[in-house]
């Protein structure tokens, strides 16, 4: 039932404050992550983990890429991320005491399931799935299970599944991190920030009207470039995937520092550039990347916060997101990008919930 909403996708975007709260419920105390959320055996396994291999497809793969930044910077352990269709057919080297993690909304994605089956023949410490479908194949086949509480996702384009996966992955990062130098104080700070995610996401949703107006500037465009740096780069990748899936606009994502190495050649007045730009340690570098884009006549759409003080102009549309701690910025900045792709699709008149050529769950190779 779509309720008051015109599409399932919009309903699911707006459900995020509720389902994110549900995904956190019982998984954190005021100051700590509660490891039982990963299964009764989780703590004993986590004690031994020295590295993480993440495998997933599509949007779930992008969640994994965000987690790589977290794992290495917060948990101080190596983390590899790969799409399942590549992983499954490759001879892999498995470092000692590596945890094999799959991420899947449906739990039935054929390549991800095949990758897990391959992994079970290798020398992994254990397998963990982050999944939204309780009775799914991936849940049955994995040693440890973390259930996201997004509820059924009907729209083909994944929205609430992604942000709840990010919550799960940050809880995992903290659980592993506390064994590798993450202090109780740092953990408490991160947990406090996580507890604000539902409210911050609700604030981001109030940008809906502004984004709807902005979306009209994309309607006649054939291409768009999405830029981010650091942990916001995979957020930009996910933004580009959403736009191409439901509006059929060719959208590419790049880490902003790569512009000069090729993609800058594409930039002209017909190429909108979307930048994910919270005020973090990479902000100044990103700003100078974006100045290069502007100098070539590119039209910029910058998702930023007040603190970044991004000047708007005829060629620069700044959409101000409420300022949040770096650790939760990926969850929050995903929201306006989901809304952007939704409204662009509406302007273009595409079938938002059922984009052409796509299926909700890819159960064949
Ligand atoms: C994109 C999308 C797909 C899925 C991918 C993996 O909006 O929905 O890219 O993310 O097919 O599906 P799951 O997470 O069910 O394994």
Automatic annotation (TrEMBL):
Root EC class: transferase
Enzyme Commission numbers on file: 2.6.1.16
GO CC, one annotated term: cytosol
Molecular function GO labels: carbohydrate derivative binding; glutamine-fructose-6-phosphate transaminase (isomerizing) activity
List of catalytic residues: 360 (for fru-6p isomerization activity)
Residue ranges the record marks as coiled coil: none
Reaction(s) this enzyme catalyzes, per UniProt: D-fructose 6-phosphate + L-glutamine = D-glucosamine 6-phosphate + L-glutamate
Main location: cytoplasm
UniProt key word Transferase: yes
GO biological process: amino sugar biosynthetic process; carbohydrate metabolic process; fructose 6-phosphate metabolic process; protein N-linked glycosylation; UDP-N-acetylglucosamine metabolic process
Subcellular location as annotated: Cytoplasm
Protein's name in the database: Glutamine--fructose-6-phosphate aminotransferase [isomerizing]
Gene: glmS
Covered residues, full protein: 245 to 609 of 609
